[in-house]
Every structure is written in structure tokens, then in C-alpha cells.
Design brief:
26% helix, 167 residues, two-stranded antiparallel sheet, single chain, flat, 2 domains, alpha+beta
């Protein structure tokens, strides 16, 4: 009988025809247990997402005398503020390339998946014990980076992820 189905926006509660709602996938949030969820919303309710999008910087800091670096995610502004006596774009342009591979031997161009830069990213081959340990120890930072890259998040309750990463 041509009856229109109505639904409600999760963001405003507005009742609208169901075919006008889109899905806003929340991939990472402190109140989530790692499992993405979706909210239904109208396009105009999320129209300014591009304006609100935050550019972030992911860094590792290795304090003197410590074996393991600590990972941080900062806003671009907060990162720029670290350059108290200089200009961060100039500092970055003149900085030496960081060595990201912790593996030895071979072609020297191997990717280390046991680093914040690559851990948890889908790849061919087996998950190394080093990558699995890194993901377990830095899950929040790894998932934040994966979300920023538009990749799937690692969910400790997912049986496949549980087996791969040893949760």
C-alpha cells in the first residue's frame, strides 16, 4: 500500500522517512569497548564534520634509559607547541628520517609491524609475536591510528583477533 516507514535520528530524535537517514559509524570512542557502533543521522546533522575534523600527530617518545617507547596522539597544535624556540614545519623538514624497521638482515626495507606506525594494519603473512605483544600493550593507540587511516579496528572480543593477537 505505499506506506512510508518513518524512523528517528539518533542525534536529534527527529522523526523522518527512513530513506533519509544515513549511518554514522563510531569506530573508536573512550566509552566503547573496542567494537564499532553506528548511529542513524540526517545529512544536515553531520554536514560540518569536515570542519570539525581534527588533524592529529602520532609520536613515540623513548625516555633516556628505558627500553620501550611511549606512544602519544596529539592535536597538530599541541604538537607544534612543543617547538618552543622554533617553527615545527621547519624542524620537521630538516629532521632526519626515523628508522622504523626493528628487524635485522635482508633488504633493510622490511616493515616492522611491531611499531605504532604499522601494528595491527592488515598485511600478508603471519602476525609475529612482537606485533601481537605490541598490539596488546598499545591497543588504544593502535586503534586510534587505524581509525584515522579508515582501517578496521582490532576488537579483543572478536574470535579472529583474539587468536591473531593473543587476547
Amino acid at each position: 500500500m505505499g506506506r512510508k516507514v518513518t524512523a528517528f535520528s539518533d542525534l536529534t530524535g527527529e522523526e523522518v522517512p527512513e530513506d533519509q537517514l544515513g549511518k554514522l559509524v563510531v569506530k573508536s570512542h573512550p566509552d566503547l569497548d573496542g567494537q564499532p557502533v553506528y548511529l542513524e543521522a540526517l545529512p544536515e546533522e553531520v554536514a560540518d564534520l569536515d570542519k570539525r575534523n581534527l588533524q592529529v600527530v602520532t609520536v613515540e617518545w623513548q625516555p633516556p634509559g628505558e627500553d620501550e617507547p611511549k606512544s602519544f596522539i596529539l592535536s597538530v597544535k599541541d604538537f607544534a607547541d612543543l617547538a618552543q624556540g622554533g617553527n615545527m614545519p621547519d624542524l620537521l623538514a630538516n629532521a632526519p628520517a626515523a628508522r622504523t624497521s626493528r628487524r635485522s638482515g635482508g633488504g633493510g626495507g622490511e616493515t616492522s609491524y611491531a611499531s605504532l606506525e604499522h601494528a595491527g594494519r592488515p598485511h600478508r603473512g603471519k602476525i609475529s609475536p612482537e606485533e601481537a605483544a605490541f598490539v596488546r600493550e598499545h591497543l588504544t593507540e593502535v586503534n586510534a591510528r587505524l581509525a584515522q587511516e579508515g582501517e578496521r579496528l582490532i576488537d579483543p572480543s572478536n574470535p579472529e583477533h583474539k587468536e591473531k593477537y593473543g587476547f
